[in-house]
């Protein structure tokens, strides 16, 4: 995919936990390490990312592995993913697919798009408008609740410890 004027290429800088809510956060970083974008995600998606980052192979294909395998079998490639919008504290993403030279764009949650990009080694872009909106949002929320203090990677051992302590109720999305 060609360089984009309206977006910045980023990569997964790490996974961490919100110190207050214990919700997983994926941190996207630009190549110059000057910008970062924290996105609060679900535990299942964080686990999907962590297993790929750490090179952990599961006995059976997980959801994002299945999607990657299906795309590969039908001759489809993931060109890139892009975090495209931020509305009412919710991020939006698109997955850009190449099917026999034809580009197809699929709506996605950012966490799923990122997990798929990690598996397919596809570039991750973030619209400049999203980075600007996120920066304003973070500035507005300063002082309202404690900031994320530690954005270092959560180790494989820590993820194992977190997963061991979980109950089935922890996997249910709260509405």
Could you outline the blueprint of secondary structure elements for this entry?
Blueprint: E1 7-17, E2 24-30, E3 36-40, H1 43-53, H2 63-73, E4 76-87, E5 90-99, E6 102-108, H3 110-120, E7 124-127, H4 128-141, H5 156-164
Parallel strand pairs: 4-7
Antiparallel strand pairs: 1-2, 1-7, 2-3, 4-5, 5-6
Helix pairs in contact: 1-3, 2-3
Written overview of the protein:
This protein has 175 residues and is α+β, with helices and mostly antiparallel strands. The chain has a single domain (7-161), classed as Roll (Bifunctional nuclease domain). The chain has 5 helices and 7 strands. The chain has helices spanning 43-53, 63-73, 110-120, 128-141, 156-164; strands spanning 7-17, 24-30, 36-40, 76-87, 90-99, 102-108, 124-127. The chain has a 7-stranded mixed beta sheet with strand order 3-2-1-7-4-5-6. It is globular, with a radius of gyration of 16 Å. The N and C termini lie far apart (37 Å).
Name a few traits of the molecule.
5 helices; alpha+beta; Bifunctional nuclease domain; 175 residues; globular; disordered C terminus; seven-stranded mixed β-sheet
